[in-house]
Amino acid sequence: MHDLAQAGHDVVVCASRASALAMTQTRAVAARLAQLGWATTILNITTTGDRDRVRSFAAIGSESLFVKELEIALRDGRAHYAVHSCKDLPSTLAEGMLLAAISQREDPRDAFCSERYERFEDLPAGAVVGSSSMRRRAQLMAMRPDLTYEDIRGNVDTRLEKLRSGKYDAIVLACAGLRRLNVSAKYMVPFEVTQMVPAVGQGALAVETLEGASIAQRLRDAVNDGPTELAVTCERAALAHLRGGCQAPIGVHAYFEGGELCAIGAMTDEPGRPLRRAGVRAAVSNCAAAADLGVRLAEQMQCA
Hints:
This protein is of the alpha/beta class. 34% of the residues lie in helices and 24% in strands. The strands form three sheets. Strands 2-1-3-10-4 form a five-stranded mixed sheet, sandwiched between helices. Strand 11 and strand 12 form a beta hairpin. The longest helix has 17 residues, at 287-303.
């Protein structure tokens, strides 16, 4: 495929997963690009994480579970850009790839969801909580080691259906996905970010292109949100310094408060081990300074 943007055409192709949430996210980016006069055709891609709906992420044992195949579509010219949940990206992009834009962040928090119990604190000892995220399980276990934690796979709707079937007493999902799909459980209570530190990039969308792609600047003009970009840059720098991938039991979240960028983190070697927490803050006005703050946070977390 030729670079349509360079050739002067006004139709481009976006690689996207086919799940309802992925399509909702992709259409949101495409709508912003359309405001600049560029129509998008969506190419649905099945990723490793989509094909294997049984094994846990830890058992599959790979980073880029929802990213690699979309990047292949960019490399072989089937697509001009790809849209990801930012939290699915590895801490370091593959060679030749460019993070062209970061969207304004949706609610970054994780949410307790249950059909039987109103709050996480109401769960009886031994209650079964479903989560496929090592990060979530590590922080949940730190709060409630008396509960039983089991893997749960599938898209948001599938997980909510498993919850309604009674297989789990509660599950934990990202507020952003629930909001974008306009779905919920009978009881849904967000955890505050200081209580359950979100995944790096959680709530934001990442738009990826090949390095040097002429459409990159248009995507940035259409989608990029400056404050979110600084926060996510900080978070990703911390994760990279810790050599953690998107499935590592590490939570890092950055947000602006009082004119400063605040960054908090929680990590452990594996669920069930004590959490190491840290927090830093500084006035930040560019991505280099944001990344430096992320490295400072990572160093403090390693020493905690």
